[in-house]
């Protein structure tokens, strides 16, 4: 029986993988994400320059063999800043997306499984968090507390879990009535084990989809907030801070590479995440709920 289950899982995984390969846009998205992430991770192999090194004699230097994308208004190498800045932007996207979805899955699991007043209370909390746009909350909090990566990430996580919670909760409400759940209870298996070991894995598809798509969204959000001066502190190189540094009319008109390059990096990464997320949605054949 166990061998049959393993064979079925293997067959399903193979079918899903083939379906993913057949989706050209998802492959393009996957390649974009992998290439950009690897380039940022191994930035030290692609440039010898320190992204924070200032040399005013190189201020607005044109692209050359030494500085392939030129230098910014402080004489810092643009190529190095794009690569090293991408590390932080992508790390923020990944960490916030994983934590937000883990929180949403955990809350949805507890809410749907136990039901009753606990379910009503958690749904009410979810509705409250869902009423306010993430960007607005970040603007208010960052305006009061000042810039900080931890503050920004905390807000992203606390406002990013409701959609995952909704889906997991609906699945729990359906799955907890299945016969195998009653069998598990009768054999003495605890509620925690039933929820997280036997029921939660059935929501893996939407969990992976949400993580993938949310990564791109959080990278965009970080870039937007940093562009406004409310995201990552300016001393830390990120794609958003590069856009912030290049927002003057003089720089935009006379030195377009300073905003075009980080803008392309942000757009490509977010687009890749969107393409891959759409492909995964087709593979797992699930519909997320708000």
Layout of secondary structure:
Layout: H1 2-22, H2 24-41, H3 43-46, H4 78-114, H5 116-131, H6 134-145, H7 149-160, H8 162-175, H9 179-186, H10 191-199, H11 204-227, H12 239-245, H13 249-254, H14 257-284
Care to describe what's here?
The chain has a single domain, classed as Orthogonal Bundle (MetI-like fold), CATH 1.10.3720.10. By secondary structure, the chain is mostly helical. The relative contact order is 0.15. Mean pLDDT is 84; it is low at 1-8. It is built from 14 helices and no strands.
Brief description of this entry?
This protein has helices spanning 2-22, 24-41, 43-46, 78-114, 116-131, 134-145, 149-160, 162-175, 179-186, 191-199, 204-227, 239-245, 249-254, 257-284. By secondary structure, it is mostly helical.
Task: Specify Rg, calculated over alpha carbons.
Answer: 23 Å
Structural class: mainly alpha
Give the fraction of residues assigned to helices.
over 70%
CATH superfamily: MetI-like
- Note the gap between the termini: 38 Å
- Taking pLDDT < 50 over at least 5 consecutive residues as the criterion, the unreliable ranges are 1-8
Q: Which fold name corresponds to the CATH topology?
A: MetI-like fold
Shape descriptor: elongated
SSE run: HHHHHHHHHHHHHH
Query: What is the average per-residue confidence, as pLDDT, rounded to a whole number?
Result: 84
Beta-strand content: under 5%
CATH architecture heading: Orthogonal Bundle
Which CATH C-level class is it? Mainly Alpha
Counted by DSSP, the helix tally is 14
Biggest sheet layout = none
Total domains: 1
**Total strand count, please?**
0
């Amino acid at each position: 029986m166990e061998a049959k289950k393993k064979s079925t899982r293997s067959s399903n995984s193979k079918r899903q993988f083939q379906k993913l390969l057949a989706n050209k846009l998802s492959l393009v998205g996957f390649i974009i994400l992998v290439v950009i992430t690897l380039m940022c991770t191994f930035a030290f192999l692609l440039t010898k320059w320190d992204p924070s090194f200032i040399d005013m004699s190189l201020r607005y230097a044109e692209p050359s063999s030494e500085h392939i994308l030129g230098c910014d208004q402080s004489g810092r190498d643009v190529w190095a800043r794009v690569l090293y800045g991408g590390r932080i932007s992508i790390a923020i996207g990944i960490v916030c997306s994983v934590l937000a979805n883990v929180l949403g899955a955990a809350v949805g699991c507890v809410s749907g499984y136990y039901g009753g007043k606990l379910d009503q209370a958690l749904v009410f909390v979810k509705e409250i968090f869902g009423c306010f746009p993430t960007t607005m909350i970040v603007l208010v909090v960052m305006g009061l507390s000042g810039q900080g990566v931890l503050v920004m990430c905390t807000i992203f996580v606390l406002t990013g879990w409701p959609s995952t919670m909704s889906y997991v909760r609906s699945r729990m409400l359906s799955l907890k009535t299945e016969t195998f759940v009653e069998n598990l209870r009768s054999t003495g298996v605890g509620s925690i084990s039933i929820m997280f070991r036997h029921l939660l894995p059935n929501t893996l598809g939407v969990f992976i989809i949400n993580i993938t798509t949310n990564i791109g969204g959080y990278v965009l959000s970080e870039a937007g907030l940093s562009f406004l001066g409310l995201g990552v502190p300016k001393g830390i190189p990120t794609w958003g801070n590069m856009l912030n540094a290049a927002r003057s009319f003089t720089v935009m008109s006379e030195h377009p590479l300073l905003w075009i390059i980080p803008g392309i990096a942000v757009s490509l990464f977010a687009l890749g995440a969107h393409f891959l997320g759409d492909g995964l949605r087709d593979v797992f054949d699930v519909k997320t709920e708000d």
